[in-house]
Amino acid sequence: MRKLLTAALTTAFVLPAVAAMAAPPEDVVKARQGYYSLLGLEMDGLAAMAKGEVPYDAEAAKAHAANLQVMTTYSPAGLYAPGTSKADMPGKTRALPEIWENFPKVGEKGAAFREAVGELASVAGDGLDALRPAVGKLGGTCKSCHDDFRATDF
Amino acid sequence: MANQGKPEAGAPAPAHGRTVTLWDPVVRLFHWALVISFFAAWGLGKFGPDQMTLHFYAGYTIGALVVLRIIWGFVGPRPARFTSFVKGPSAILAYARHLRDRRPSNTLGHNPVGAIFVVGILLVLAVQVGTGLIGDPEDYVNAGPLADMVTIETSRSALGIHELLGNLAFFFVLFHIGAIAFYKRWKGEDLVTPMITGKKVIEEPAE
Fold it and tell me: How does the record classify its membrane topology (chain B) (predicted)?
C-alpha cells in the first residue's frame, strides 16, 4: 500500500516537475560533444590539407571554413548549462568545473576561436601556404581552451 | 678507457688529490644536450606557444639522446656502461648507509644510489617520448606523429600520462640538482666539473 502511494505521489508531483526543468544533463553533454564533433569534422579536413595528407583543394577548404563560420554564429550558452561538468558527471564529460567558475575567460577563448575562424575563412581559398598558418592558429585556439577547461581524459 | 683510474699524465696533481679521467665526451655531450633539450621541451610544453612545433623538436631530440645513451650504456667506456653502475639492493643499501658521511664518496662513475636516478630518468624520458609520439590533444595541429596508429582512447590516456610524467621528470631534475648541491656542500665533492671537463679530482685523506 505504502509503495503504491509513493509511486502515485511520484507520478503526480515529481515527474511533471522534472519534465518542466531544462534539458536533462545527459542531453546537454551529448549536444555539447556534438557541437565540438562538428567543429572537429571541418578541422579534420583542413588539417589533412595543411599536413599534406590530402592535396590542397581551394573549394573544399573554403567549404570547411564556411561551415566553421556558421558554427561561430551559434550561441553555445545552452551547451554550458549548469550541472554538466566533469565533477557533476564523471566519466561522461571532460568539461572542467572551472568553466562555470570563470565564464569571462571562457568567453575570451571563444573570441580568439571566432577571430581565428574569420582569418581562416578569408585566406582558405588563397593556396596551401596561406591556409597552413591559419589552420595552425585555429588549432592553437582549440588547445588554449582545452589546456584550461578540458580534462585530458574522462 | 686506458687511463681509467690512473693519474693524469703530464698534469700536475693538486695538493691532496689525484686527477683521473672519468666521463668520456659522449656522456658529457649527452648530459648537457639533455639539459638543454629537457628544459626546452618542458618549458615549451608548459608555457610555450599553442602551436607546439618547437616542443616536438625538443622531444625528438630527447628521444635521440635517450637512444644514444642506452646504446652507449652497452658499448661505451666502462664508467658509461650500465653493468658498471647498476647495482642490486645490497650494494645500494651499503652505499646509502654512508650517504650522510661528511666526506667525498670518490665514486668513479655513478654511485649505486645515483644509478637509480640515471635509470629512472632514462625510463621516464623514454615513456615521455613514446606517449608524446602517440598523444593527441584533439586540436588538429598538435597531434603526435604516430597518434594515427592507436585509438583515440589510447591517445588520450597517453597524453594524460605525458602530463603526469612531465611533472615527475621535472621533480627528478630538481632532486638531481639538490643531490649535487648536497654532495658539494655536505660531502665536499664536486660532481659538476667532471661532467664538464671529464676529469675528476679524487681527494685523498690528509695524512
Answer: Multi-pass membrane protein
Q: Do B163 and A141 touch (CB under 8 A)?
A: no
Contacts of B45 (CB under 8 A, 6+ apart): B52, B55, B166
Mean pLDDT of B95-119: 92
Q: Is B68 exposed, middle or buried (0-12, 13-18, 19+ CB in 10 A)?
A: middle
The CATH number assigned to the domain with range A23-149 reads 1.20.120.10
What residues of A form the annotated binding site for heme c? 142, 145-146
Q: Which residues contact B116 (CB under 8 A, 6 or more apart)?
A: B92
Q: Which residue has the cell 582569418?
A: A119
The Cα A16–Cα A48 span in angstroms is 49
The pTM (predicted TM-score) of the whole model is: 0.82
Least confident of A142-146, B23-27, B199-203: B199-203
> A46: which chain B residues are within 8 Å (Cβ-Cβ)?
140
- The ipTM, to two decimals, is 0.75
CA distance A25 to chain B (A): 23
What is the model's pLDDT at position B2? 43
Contacts of B139 in chain A (CB under 8 A): 139-140, 142-143, 146
In terms of DSSP H, where are the helices of A51-93? 58-72
Between CA A44 and CA A52, with CA A49 as vertex, the angle to 5 degrees is 120
Domain boundaries, chain A: 23-149
The CATH T-level fold of domain B26-203 is: Fumarate Reductase Cytochrome B subunit (1.20.950)
Query: Residue B89 and residue B21: Cα distance in Å, rounded?
Result: 28
Verify whether the Cβ–Cβ distance B141 to A139 is below 8 Å.
yes
Letter string b/e over residues A48-66, b meaning 16 or more CB atoms within 10 A of that residue's CB: bbbeeeeebeeebbbebbe
In terms of Cα–Cα distance, which of B39, B70, B64, B23 is closest to B174?
B39
Do B156 and A50 count as a contact with CB atoms less than 8 A apart? Answer: no
Name the A residues in 2-41 with CB < 8 Å from any B CB. Answer: 40
Question: Does the pLDDT at position B3 exceed 80?
Answer: no
